[in-house]
Automatic annotation (TrEMBL):
GO terms assigned for molecular function: DNA-binding transcription factor activity; transcription cis-regulatory region binding
UniProt key word Transcription regulation: yes
This protein's record includes keyword Transcription regulation: yes
Protein name in the entry: Transcriptional regulator, TetR family
Annotated source species: Giesbergeria anulus
Ranges annotated as DNA-binding: 30-49
Pfam hit, one: TetR_C_11
Length: 204
């Protein structure tokens, strides 16, 4: 039992850290609070994660970063059209990130990145750059096959990912993004976004 408990500690610490980072933000989260929430001492936390930045980076990698390797592998053997691939990427992002607590990490970065360049740089390397590369790969596939018209990839990629950012903000700051009288269905919103995007990308 002692061995199982020791192996469980990093995962428990990451779960506790995710909850507190999302609830309080990076600056306000204290490592003592993370340790207490996980039921261990601060010293035990530092055995696994030497600093708060290391802890946060592990949370980012565990909840978002690991997804990109999986998605790239899936697209290696994807048999459908590029339009279908784009639809799948939207649905998969919502299933694995957008609808989960992990979406709060992106909101945190949007709010606090300028104050913490070290974690911002890590987020760029683990999330932003792989995400952009993946979307560029999808768009390039569509252009190479003649399914999509030629576009400027450096800018078109932002048209693809901007719905993700809107949904992330609406999840965690709904009153600032959506009128109180309106209920937004994330699935219908993403379906509409990808339909509008495809009608602008598909070759005549």
């Amino acid at each position: 039992m002692r061995v199982r408990r020791k192996q469980a500690r990093p995962a428990e610490l990451l779960e506790a850290a995710l909850d507190l980072f999302i609830a309080k933000g990076y600056a306000a989260t204290k490592v003592e609070a993370v340790a207490a929430r996980a039921g261990v001492s601060k010293g035990t936390l530092f055995l696994y994660f030497p600093s708060k930045a290391d802890l946060f980076n592990a949370v980012v990698r565990e909840n978002i970063g690991i997804r990109f390797q999986q998605w790239n592998q899936e697209f290696e053997t994807f048999q459908g059209s590029t339009a279908e691939m784009l639809r799948y990427s939207y649905c998969s992002w919502w299933e694995h990130i957008g609808s989960t607590r992990a979406s709060g990490i992106t909101k945190l970065m949007l709010c606090e990145a300028s104050n913490f360049p070290e974690i911002a740089q890590f987020y760029q390397q683990e999330v932003s750059e792989p995400g952009h590369a993946l979307m560029r790969r999808i768009l390039q596939r569509g252009m190479d096959s003649g399914e999509f018209r030629p576009v400027d990839l450096d800018h078109a990629v932002y048209a693809v990912i901007s719905p993700f950012l809107f949904l992330t903000l609406s999840q965690h700051a709904s009153l600032a993004c959506i009128p109180a009288s309106l209920t937004v269905s994330p699935q219908l919103y993403l379906e509409n976004q990808v339909n509008m995007l495809l009608h602008g990308l598909l070759a005549s």
